[in-house]
């Protein structure tokens, strides 16, 4: 998992290497793809709040990786959950980080927008940890089976489509796996586990955490 963790960190760092104009173009590309739900679009007040939140997100996306940004004292922390309103956090978690890098309805994202999406995900969660990625990997094994999950966790296979690892029926019937790359699927599981509903006191999360730590605790006797 250390190799996988370092790979995800390097993906996010790719955005920092871009020229300012490419960073700005990537931000505008993502913002253009943020759409309200039909219910939100049908309610003027909800739509007004949605559009205001999207504009705030746009400014924060433009500020990422720009130390000269005047709007934020620390632009690289502007998208951390603690810095977001509830509406901004919901949009970022449900509308932005769920974007498909290669198989979206509008075609694949540009290389620059993919790098920004990785940067956004890392910044939103305040970085990644081996423990959290390992927990997502366990859920991946539950979803795909141990053998397929081991293949998907190979750092060399990150850009492969998930269709390579699932049977046709299972792939087409599951919106989480469909039209995603291997890396996207792991981060999508990560996002669901640690996103808007990651309250450790929720019964399901507590049961999972207890089970996971019982398997990884170094004090547990090994056969």
Can you characterise this structure?
The chain has 223 residues and is mainly α. It has 2 domains: 1-125; 129-223, no CATH class. The protein is 59% helix and 0% strand. It is built from 11 helices and no strands. The protein has helices at residues 2-16, 20-32, 38-42, 44-63, 86-96, 111-124, 130-144, 146-152, 168-172, 182-194, 203-216. The radius of gyration is 18 Å and the shape is globular.
Protein traits:
223 residues, mainly alpha, 2 domains, 0% strand, globular, disordered C terminus
Could you give a short description of this structure?
The chain contains eleven helices and no strands.
Helix percent reads 55-70%
Question: How much strand?
Answer: under 5%
Distance between the termini: 23 Å
What is the multimeric organization of the chains shown? Answer: single chain
Sheet bearing the most strands, described?
A: none
Separate helix tally: 11
SS content category: mainly alpha
On the 0 to 100 scale, the average pLDDT is: 83
Residue runs with pLDDT of under 50 for 5 or more positions: 200-204, 218-223
Which word captures the global form? globular
Q: Radius of gyration in whole Å, from Cα?
A: 18 Å
């Amino acid at each position: 998992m250390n190799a996988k963790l370092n790979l995800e960190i390097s993906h996010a760092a790719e955005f920092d290497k871009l020229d300012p104009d490419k960073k700005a173009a990537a931000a505008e590309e993502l913002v253009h793809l943020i759409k309200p739900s039909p219910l939100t679009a049908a309610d003027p007040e909800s739509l007004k709040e949605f559009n205001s939140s999207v504009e705030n997100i746009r400014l924060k996306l433009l500020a990422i990786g720009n130390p000269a940004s005047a709007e934020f004292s620390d632009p690289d922390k502007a998208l951390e959950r603690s810095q977001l309103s509830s509406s901004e956090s919901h949009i970022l978690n449900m509308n932005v980080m769920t974007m498909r890098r290669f198989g979206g309805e509008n075609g694949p994202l540009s290389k620059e927008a993919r790098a920004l999406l990785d940067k956004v995900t890392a910044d939103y969660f305040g970085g990644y940890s081996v423990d959290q990625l390992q927990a997502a990997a366990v859920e991946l094994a539950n979803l795909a089976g141990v053998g397929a999950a081991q293949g998907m966790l190979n750092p060399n296979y990150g850009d492969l489509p998930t269709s390579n690892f699932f049977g046709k029926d299972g792939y087409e019937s599951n919106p989480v796996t469909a039209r995603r790359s291997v890396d996207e699927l792991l981060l999508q599981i990560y996002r669901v586990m640690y996103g808007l509903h990651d309250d450790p006191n929720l019964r399901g999360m507590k049961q999972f955490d207890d089970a996971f730590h019982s398997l990884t605790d170094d004090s547990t006797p090994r056969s």
